[in-house]
Specification:
Blueprint lengths: L10 H18 L1 H17 L5 H17 L13 H13 L1 H4 L8 H37 L4 E6 L2 E7 H26 L1 E2 L15 H7 L4 E2 L3 H6 L2 H27 L7 E2 L18 H24 L15 H23 L2 E2 L1 H8 L6 H12 L3 H18 L8 H12 L7 H8 L1 H6 L9 H44 L1
Parallel strand pairs: 3-4
Antiparallel strand pairs: 1-2, 5-6
Helix pairs in contact: 2-3, 2-6, 2-8, 2-19, 3-4, 6-7, 6-12, 6-19, 7-10, 7-19, 10-11, 10-12, 11-12, 14-15, 14-17, 15-16
Length: 495
């Protein structure tokens, strides 16, 4: 039994597909579409594919559409997306003879992928800018705490004394690479697919390089198949944000521990603290919980990008067009919010310097240096020195002794009893080996915990930040120059 065909669109298809995607297109693609249309008209005219009259009519119609604003473009009968809504207005304003020629040597395929790349571009740059501001906040904070002793942890247990600046320098190294990953994602994205048309290109003698230059693309995607089939500009964004999220999630975990009363290492500013509805004493650092949740959201959005690009046909498909917009642009929006909030937290963060200094030597964190001192002063093999110090720590723990209650006499007795060795250290060498400050000051190698070594690392991070800032300024300058060139070309044709 046959069923009569229904008119397009089905009400549910309109409600759940066309209408939401149209709103996304108005949000993300309206301005890029105006720019891409103007660049296409200029290119067609310079290639003598359009007459001067046709080019002027189209450019004049585009001005009228822009003056009306995007809210004047609506879905209706026979109009399924922003492309057709705008084309219908152009035909209305320029006339049927001229208005329909904008689509010469072009398809919704190459145009759509170009618009996504154009819409991604400023959001990628904004995310990188937010990351640079956060890195600078971390660097300024670290410079204040070059001498702030604290325990460093391995396997969640106190391991060795270090400094707050040394910890932050390590964090910043990963964030520097995150900036590089975002720059790489931008490079992958800033390629022009225009000229690929539906898939195979076009027989019209167009200039793909001109279209790319007018829109501020670095170059064209040479393969027309790649131009409409590639998705790595999307997954590179996802990859960069995923690694950033993982780096920041680990930092957030440490911050939450430091903010506990048991740790007492840091104090979150009152502007980020919420109280309990019942417990008067509570001071909840909920901003860190929100940041942790935002990181999780960003990671989920980034993974959504990857999954939508996974196992789809290599070619034009909705999976990597309209359907990918929510996780794609959502992930970058979340990244920006998170990074700005993180920077504000660091800019107002207080550190309990005396509490951290006290804890830096607790838990026998300095005894690695005591073993090293036995190697240097007593000419012992390291494994023997390690065994003696390990036995000394076990003795102290059995007797309930703190690190500052150990003596060099105890060391000698433990060495004789455990290994039958006669070991003698001077009082100065013994005390220095167990001093957290001396422990840190001795780590002078490149990248070490000594304040001078860490200061060198922070200085290099400053150079890296400046390099990224210059790159950002150069890229934005190139885009602005392209916009000026396009406007000048349009003005010339409209004369």
């Amino acid at each position: 039994m046959s069923r009569a065909g229904s008119a397009f669109p089905h009400p549910l298809y309109d409600k759940y597909v066309l209408q939401p995607f149209y709103e996304d297109a108005k949000t993300y693609l309206y301005a890029p579409m105006l720019a891409a249309n103007r660049a296409h008209v200029v290119m067609l005219r310079r290639c003598d594919i359009l007459s001067a009259e046709n080019a002027r009519a189209l450019l004049d119609a585009l001005q009228q559409v822009e003056a009306m604003g995007m809210d004047a473009l609506t879905l209706g009968e026979g109009v399924e997306d922003l492309f057709f809504a705008m084309e219908n207005k152009l035909i209305e304003f320029a006339g049927a003879a001229y208005g329909g020629n904008l689509q010469l040597a072009r398809s919704r395929n190459d145009l759509g992928y170009a618009l996504t790349r154009l819409a991604l571009r400023p959001r990628l740059l904004r995310a990188l800018e937010d990351l640079l501001h956060f890195r600078q906040s971390l660097r300024s904070f670290a410079e204040l705490h070059l001498g702030t002793l604290m325990p460093g942890y391995t396997h969640t247990q106190p391991a060795q004394p270090t400094t707050m600046a040394h910890y932050f320098a390590g964090l910043m190294a990963g964030l520097r690479r995150d900036s590089a990953r975002l720059r790489f994602a931008y490079k992958t994205n800033n390629l022009s697919p225009l000229g690929a048309a539906a898939l195979t290109g076009t027989a019209f003698p167009i200039d793909r390089h001109l279209s790319a230059r007018l829109l501020g693309f670095d170059e064209i995607q040479l393969s027309t198949y790649d131009s409409i089939g590639a998705s790595d500009n999307l997954t590179d964004v996802a990859g960069a944000l995923s690694t950033l999220g993982i780096n920041l999630s680990r930092f957030t975990r440490d911050m939450l521990f430091w903010a506990t009363q048991e740790s007492g290492a840091i104090r979150i500013d009152d502007s980020f603290i919420q109280i309990s509805s019942i417990m008067p004493q509570k001071r909840n650092p909920v901003v860190l919980e929100h940041l942790r949740a935002r990181i999780s959201r960003m990671l989920a959005q980034a993974q959504g990008i990857v999954i939508q690009c996974h196992n789809v046909p290599y070619g034009d498909t909705q999976d990597i067009e309209d359907e990918v917009f929510p996780p794609l642009f959502g992930s970058l929006d979340t990244a920006g919010q998170m990074l700005q909030l993180f920077a504000a937290v660091i800019d107002t963060l207080e550190v309990n310097v005396s509490r951290l200094r006290e804890r830096a030597g607790q838990g026998f964190t300095t005894v690695t240096e005591l073993a090293d001192t036995l190697v240097r002063e007593c000419n012992l093999p390291f494994r023997q020195a390690h065994g003696i110090v390990s036995a000394l720590v076990s003795y102290a723990q059995r007797e309930g002794l703190a690190p500052d209650e150990l003596t060099r006499r105890m060391l000698s007795e433990v060495a004789r009893e455990s290994l039958g060795l006669h070991v003698e250290l001077s009082e100065d060498a013994f005390k220095r080996a167990l001093d957290p400050q001396a422990f840190v000051d001795a780590r002078l190698l490149p990248g070490g915990a000594a304040p001078s070594a860490t200061a060198d690392v922070l200085a290099r991070e400053g150079v890296s930040i400046k390099d990224d800032e210059r790159w950002l300024e150069t890229v934005r300058g190139s885009i602005a120059a392209a916009e000026q060139d396009l406007q000048a070309a349009v003005d010339e044709l409209l004369k």
